[in-house]
Structure formats: structure tokens, C-alpha cells
Write a structure and sequence with these properties.
alpha/beta, 6 helices, globular
Length: 182
């Protein structure tokens, strides 16, 4: 299935740099790391690791980390930036790990890119050890639930955004900064 990631990998790498985008760097990283620290985890799986940025952060916290991603160019960047890291080509829907392999499984803004999210989540839970934790950061409904409509100006001058189908699985192409993904 062509989801656009292979064709968009170089644009993604350019947009992210080594630090990540504004939202990751200034909004999500600290709460995510606080939860990692509170988890007491020693091992972690980063599902949809991309260029390995969060894997490197997990390793800096002392966790033995494996990153998986289906996009070879992103994995190549991860390996180049972290030659000692463990980065593997894989999809969330078919994790090649034994049951209970990890203390922590992370999906950092990658759940939206998993074609069969239910199966992916089932697999993530399967590879968690008993008592392990699944840590998910996902886009808010304000980013995904408005679809093509976005903000609307009402006749009385107020603005509103209509959220519809927030819990419904949806697939549509989106594009920004030379990145075009499904």
C-alpha cells in the first residue's frame, strides 16, 4: 500500500531536523518523558519511530529501546544518527516479538498512520509484559475531526469548528511542507 511515506521521507527529515517540530519539542516531549520516567520501564518499543528521535530520547533515559518503522529511508536516518541503536523495518500490525517482551510500548504520533489501528493496538498490548504500559500521543480531534471544513465564520460573527466522526476511522491524503501522506 502506498501511504506516501516513502516518497515523503526526505521532506519529513528536512522538516524535522534532529530536534523535531515545534509541537514535539515544546508541547509533547516533556509530558511524554515524564510518563516514561514514572513508568519505571527498562525496555521500550517505539512503534513508528521514524528517524529515531524519540528512541534516542528513551535511550538517554536509560531504556533499552527498539524502534520499528515501515519506511526504509527514515530507518536509514535513524541508524545514521544513532549507530548503536536497534532500528527494524516492521509494521505495527505484525510485531515480530514474543508476548510480554517490553515494559513500555510507545506510539508517538504514529497511531494515525497505522492502516489497521485496531490490529496494531492489539499487537502493541500483546508485546507488553504483564503490568507494562502503553504510551500513546495522538493528534487531537481539532486536527483530524474537522476534515476539510476547518473553522467557519457564523452569520453573527463568531467562529466555530465542527467536529464530526472523531471516533470513526478515516483515511484521506494530507499535505504540508513537501510531505504528502495518507
Amino acid at each position: 500500500m502506498d501511504d506516501g511515506w516513502a516518497a515523503s521521507a526526505q521532506a519529513w527529515l528536512a522538516a524535522q531536523g534532529t530536534a523535531g517540530d515545534f509541537g514535539r519539542l515544546h508541547v509533547l516531549d516533556q509530558p511524554m518523558l515524564a510518563r516514561v520516567r514514572a513508568s519505571g520501564a527498562a525496555t521500550a518499543l517505539d512503534v513508528g519511530c521514524g528517524e529515531g528521535r524519540f528512541c534516542r530520547m528513551l535511550a538517554a533515559e536509560g531504556l533499552q529501546t527498539v524502534g520499528i518503522d515501515p519506511t526504509e529511508d527514515l530507518l536509514a536516518a535513524a541508524r545514521a544518527r544513532d549507530p548503536g541503536g536497534d532500528y527494524r523495518a516492521a509494521r505495527a500490525e505484525a510485531l515480530a516479538f514474543d508476548d510480554g517482551s517490553f515494559d513500555l510500548v510507545v506510539s508517538y504520533l504514529s497511531l494515525i498512520d497505522i492502516p489497521d489501528a485496531r490490529l496494531g493496538l492489539t499487537e502493541m498490548v500483546r508485546v507488553l509484559r504483564p503490568g507494562g504500559q502503553l504510551l500513546i500521543a495522538n493528534l487531537s480531534p481539532h486536527a483530524t475531526g474537522a476534515g476539510e471544513t476547518g473553522w467557519e465564520r457564523m452569520p453573527d460573527g463568531t467562529t466555530r469548528i465542527t467536529l464530526a466522526g472523531v471516533l470513526d476511522e478515516q483515511a484521506y491524503w494530507t499535505e504540508w511542507s513537501g510531505i504528502r501522506i495518507l
